[in-house]
Amino acid sequence: MLITKFWHAGDIEMRDGFSIEELKKRLQNSRYKLTHQRQDVLEVFLNSTGEHLSAEEVHRTLRDKGYDIGLATVYRTLELMCSPEMNILQKMEFGEKRARYELKKIEENGHQHHHLICKKCDKVIEFSEDMLEGLEQKIAETCNFNIIDHQVLFYGYCQECAKKLEN
Amino acid sequence: MLITKFWHAGDIEMRDGFSIEELKKRLQNSRYKLTHQRQDVLEVFLNSTGEHLSAEEVHRTLRDKGYDIGLATVYRTLELMCSPEMNILQKMEFGEKRARYELKKIEENGHQHHHLICKKCDKVIEFSEDMLEGLEQKIAETCNFNIIDHQVLFYGYCQECAKKLEN
DNA sequence: GTTGCTGCAAAGCTTTTGCATTAGG
DNA sequence: CCTAATGCAAAAGCTTTGCAGCAAC
Fold this sequence. Notes:
Two copies of one chain form a homodimer. Chain A is α/β, with parallel strands linked by helices. Chain A has one domain: Orthogonal Bundle (Arc Repressor Mutant, subunit A). In chain A, 37% of the residues lie in helices and 24% in strands. Chain A has helices spanning 20-29, 36-47, 55-64, 71-82, 135-143, 159-166, and strands at 3-5, 14-15, 53-54, 89-92, 100-103, 106-107, 114-118, 124-127, 145-158. Chain A is flat and about 50 Å long. Chain A starts with a strand and ends with a helix. The A-B interface holds A 6, 8, 91, 93, 95, 116, 118-119, 125, 127, 129, 131-132, 135-136, 138-140, 142-159, 162 and B 6, 8, 91, 93, 95, 116, 118-119, 125, 127, 129, 131-132, 135-136, 138-140, 142-159, 162. Chain B binds a DNA duplex through helix 2 and helix 4.
């Protein structure tokens, strides 16, 4: 999966704030153990450049590096890191059959970013935009729904594929 | 899956515009055949009250009615009806492993509706809201991306589950 | 009569689970 | 030590596919 990054002007600054130390702290808070497998999985994300990784890709990356880890452990670790308790990874589904994960990056305004997905080549373009400003609260009030997370997906054609389709 | 409907004031009026005649017309335009299986699948959606149906639910509904149809055919039919050519159904993924489908309902303003998904009981609440007004075009221009569809998902806790979690 | 469609069963993929073994605290 | 975590392999789902027979046009 090709990932093209696009940050809207004014929303560029981000903070990840994740490290092995932070992982250790959060694990201890919940009486989980700091295994080397969990460290290894986190490091894959810390070393990746914002890619949306699938469980199998994380597993293969570690195996290729010579680390010995089972796929089941990768799945269990990903789930743990996505839990509200740990809150380290974000799980996403782009309409493929496999799920993808990325570090939970919080922008200054507290919003996640959103995704443009090309229907032809599956390229994922990220964008950051404050259009949801105030909307969450409005929905929460009107629908009596306590929002803790959201995901916005736009489907369409990227520039390259739009050109190809014209021909 | 429990579906609670909520239509924001002012966005209530909708038009479906689907019928067997319409199906026939669209099939013929693309040299597809009007089989009774395809009619039957469409009728399940026409008779349903806005539910988000999975392939297996469509299959079971038809089997229960005494119609004889294979699950593979249901899948093939659903895929066909989701294609841009047919443009009759909308495929959605709510983070379950199975996909769900519903009639492509277009609101007066041309927007689809959006979903609130309870993290605890999986209830899906629909809401309609014009907050994306102008945003699509803005994104299209800034990102050079030709948007043809979108899906907005909010995750959180519905009123009932929020209460239970307090205890 | 052609060509596409269906049904069945098998295969494919991703993800989950049971259980004996290992390792963190 | 004690409990949680791991690895493996098997199972579980959902979805897709190959192919022979059937139905639409």
